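# step 3/5: fold
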Amino acid sequence: MNLIEQLLAQIGADGSAAFTVCIGEYAYFKGVKGVATLSSQKITLIIGKNLLAVTGENLSVAEYFQGDLIIKGGICGVQIEKSE
């Protein structure tokens, strides 16, 4: 099992989930099931069985289509949160 597969397994996602972040500019997420919270400082995504929180300033969803989501803005952090 490679590192990406191990990380995805830990958050309860399958191989169809992944993300790439260009700090301070854009973040691309694959395998998004939905958006749990949305504000200009924090966007929380539903990925697998858990939540993924993107924090920063002036955040917005630039595109969301068939599980692919792009966030733009002053991204400063991404954190996995356990869902309740």
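# step 4/5: annotate
Residues 20 and 38 are 19 Å apart (CA to CA).
# step 5/5: archive (pending)
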